[in-house]
Amino acid sequence: MKHLFYITGVIIAFVCHCSVAYGQVSVGVHTGINSSKMFIRSDDDPQTVENTYWKTRFMVGIPIEIALSKHWALQPELNYVQKGWNFNAMDTLGNHAEIDLRFDYLELPLLLKYTKQWKKTHFYAFGGPYFSYTNHIRASLSSVLGNPSETIKPKDIHFSSYDVGFYAGVGIGRKIGIGTLSAEIRYGHSIANIMQKEYSDGTSMMNRNFQFLVSYRIPLGVGVFKKNNKQ
């Protein structure tokens, strides 16, 4: 967890530096849906095990866009993201059951963004790594025995509290009022095995997810690029 705070501190320091150097920083809020599933691979069988199903949940966060040039920007974010998946299993009596797992992540993406302006509309593409942390998992079982659910610690079922991966996506935005309204789609690809190593037994489990977001950002200052254009 201390590594996450260290990374956050570095980003905040960088934001302060860019605010002084360029004077062009935008802060906003975004929200949308997160559709995720689990990618499972075994060392014994390199083929993907298709036994999990897409699950759609909620996410919300605060993006900060820091101008690096006319087209390029750095966008750190602090997000709350619900990930998870469904899979089929058997209950204690041997009946068919469906297990639903929900991971509530505090997520810190660090994205590099390229924007192309056309009148009041702009198109953009972005990508970069993310770091996630969760302290609890919501587990639900649906079978003929009922629908019990409980909140458990990741370590209690041998999952890691941390996840690392990258995002890539595209979006479109338009200036409305004093800020910019945007809509985007992004793909998340975990590169970390969320199973604890000592219990994985050669099996790797990694998150895959799509996010559909809308956002509104307000500029905090007037950039040097606008000033130069006026001169």
Order of adjacent strands in the largest pleated sheet = 1-3-4-5-6-9-10-11
Compute the separation of the termini in Å. Answer: 48 Å
**Continuous helix count:** 3
Which secondary-structure class do the elements indicate? Answer: mainly beta
Shape: elongated
Weakly predicted, low-confidence segments: 222-231
Mean pLDDT: 79
State the helical fraction. Answer: 10-25%
Q: What's the main sheet like?
A: 8 strands, antiparallel, barrel
Could you state the order of secondary-structure elements as H and E?
Answer: HEEEEEEEEEEHEH
> Rounded to an integer, what's the Rg over CA atoms?
21 Å
Total strands: the figure is 11
Q: What is the strand content?
A: over 45%
Quick rundown:
With 231 residues, the protein is mainly beta.
Question: Can you tell me about this structure?
Answer:
- Helix content is 14%, strand content 61%.
- The protein has 231 residues and is mainly beta.
- It has an 8-stranded antiparallel barrel.
- The radius of gyration is 21 Å and the shape is elongated.
- The N and C termini lie far apart (48 Å).
Search tags:
single chain; about 230 residues; mainly beta; 3 helices; about 15% helix
